[in-house]
Write a structure and sequence with these properties.
About 60% of the residues lie in helices and about 15% in strands. It is α+β, with helices and mostly antiparallel strands. It has a five-stranded antiparallel sheet with strand order 2-3-1-4-5, with helices on both faces.
């Protein structure tokens, strides 16, 4: 392959990474070392089931993509074994799955991340992982909204029962 072809290929890869970064609600950068094949397969399956795009990428290309988009905070984390999880659907899912897997397997390490354009250090990624999922938050909100209505219905039912007993 000619060097011009290699440069074009690398630039194309940088553009693809930039597109993923731009579309992502959240990104988590990890050191994936220590996983055996079975653990890696299960880990990737969990991420895939949550709609998370997980890839082992060249640090140079990822750094270039972030820098071209104006994010230089990632430079320090982009060394050594690096994998990146992108989610364009759920801002919490990648952090939650990765942090849970790290706790369960006692392997890998979170480097940093980004949620809706804001850089997060390792501690920030762990904080995002502690947020309940979107479904749980919606269920809690609906439960809070239904509580007064349920109370009113019970109260009206008691009044109706009392009126029937008096009649």
């Amino acid at each position: 392959m000619a060097s011009k072809d290699v440069l074009e290929l690398k630039q194309q890869q940088v553009e693809e990474i930039k597109a993923k970064i731009s579309a992502a609600q959240s990104i988590v950068v990890i050191d994936y070392m220590g996983l055996n094949v079975a653990e890696d397969t299960a880990f990737r399956k969990d991420l895939r089931n949550a709609g998370v795009d997980y890839q082992v990428l060249k640090n140079r290309l990822v750094k270039r993509a972030f820098n071209e988009l104006g994010y230089t905070q990632f430079d320090e984390a982009l060394n050594g074994p690096t994998a990146v999880a992108f989610s364009d659907k759920d801002a919490v899912a990648p952090a939650k799955i990765i942090v849970d897997s790290i706790k369960k397997l006692n392997k890998m390490k979170t480097k940093c991340g980004m949620v809706e354009g804001e850089f997060l250090d390792e501690k920030g990624v762990k904080e995002i992982a502690s947020i309940p999922s979107k479904e749980i938050l919606i269920a809690k909100m609906l439960g809070s909204m239904q509580s007064p209505i349920t109370g009113l219905a019970v109260c009206l039912n008691k009044i109706a029962e009392q009126m029937q007993q008096q009649a």
